[in-house]
Amino acid sequence: KYLFLYFLYLQILFSNSQVNFGSIDDVQFESKIIGNRSIEIYRPSNQQISDKTIFIIMHDGQMLFDSTITWNRKDWNIDGIFEKRKNRNNDILIIGVSSINKSGDGFIDNTKRYAEYFPKESIKYFKTNFKTYFYNKYINQNKFDYLKFLVNELIP
């Protein structure tokens, strides 16, 4: 009984976002760098994509549109913002990249998220000590190279 409720909770928590304005598609992106990741593609209008379309990549994509599936029951209200704008320059496509953090709580999940967003280039400026060793061993790994994923896989 409890196992069923747990899986039902997970299905609700990780289901696709619903929007009040525009349209949204959920894509499972297969990355060779960071592993599979949920990507939500939001269009505030039904305009065809052209050279004038503005592309915006937003992080923590699971928090952008639908408060019913977020860990804290709050969202960034992106679709609500575009609804208020009506059709004023809505030739925009928002790409919401979900973070590696699955649950929103727990030390390990949050640590993975921080490792992914951590600016790896800054490690070389650390004084050599345990922190440098820890960051080089744990955070400076290919599976946490979110920037490389964005530049080499998602954007192209």
Radius of gyration: 18 Å
Distance between the termini: 45 Å
What class would the helix/strand composition place it in? alpha+beta
Number of strands: 4
Which strand order spans the largest sheet, edge to edge or round the barrel? 1-2-4-3
Kindly describe this structure.
- The structure is a single chain.
- It contains 5 helices and 4 strands; from the N terminus they run αβββαβααα.
- Strands 1-2-4-3 form a 4-stranded mixed sheet, covered by helices on one side.
- The relative contact order is 0.17.
- It has 156 residues and is α+β, with helices and mostly antiparallel strands.
- The chain has helices spanning 2-13, 78-85, 107-117, 130-139, 146-154, and strands spanning 23-31, 35-43, 54-59, 92-97.
- The radius of gyration is 18 Å and the shape is elongated.
- A hairpin with a 3-residue loop joins strand 1 and strand 2 (35-43).
What's this model, at a glance?
The chain has 156 residues and is α+β, with helices and mostly antiparallel strands. The protein contains five helices and four strands.
List key phrases describing it:
elongated; 4-stranded mixed β-sheet; alpha+beta; disordered N terminus; 156 residues
